[in-house]
Amino acid sequence: MRGSGIPAVKEGDIVTKGDILIKGWMDGKYTGTRYVHASGEIKAKVWYEEKEQVPLNQVVERFTGNEEQKYKIKINNFTINFFKTLSKFEKYDTIETNNKLKIFSNFYLPIELIKVTNKEKEEEKITYGIEEAKQIGIQKATEKIEKQLPEESEVLQKYINSYANKDYIEVDVTYEVLENIGTKEKIVF
After folding, report:
1. Distances in Å between the alpha carbon of 158 and those of 47, 53, 77, 174?
2. Read out DSSP for 97-116?
3. In this structure, what DSSP letter does residue 90 have?
4. Nearest 5°: phi and psi at 37?
5. How far apart are CA 112 and CA 99, in angstroms?
6. How much is the pLDDT for 6?
7. Is 177 within 8 Å of 157 (Cβ atoms)?
């Protein structure tokens, strides 16, 4: 009698999604071939790859911490501003917060108090060296790959390639991972 859990592929074979890797049957002297539940663990080498491009010269916007707050009232579709329309900041982001006037728990008047907050921001030019840009690219690509990895996986190798030109550096990070790729499927005859 043959047992269940007979491998359908040999070590070193290339498998694709949907391939049956373990199948089970029993050959009985009087019953013939009978299909049975088969189980096993399938570990395979899987490659994860991410590319990152890091410009050597960048312009980054940062908030300075300076803010200005202004208010306006909106009655139906009519708005009354309590401020001049121009901001004192050259570059800024605007955030509006609306508060409706409520009389009862679910009854609102068509009147809104709108708070307008302008947050000043400035541009900063950053120039990276090739090695520094390479490390930033490696860090970003590594973070993306590690978010994709299953919990019970084992990193076997980590490959890093980089290509630089005068404007940017491109980093290619590849993880070779040993992971369980098996899933349980119901086989219908």
Report:
1. 10, 18, 60, 6
2. EEEEEESSSS-EEEEEEEEE
3. S
4. -65, 130
5. 5
6. 52
7. no
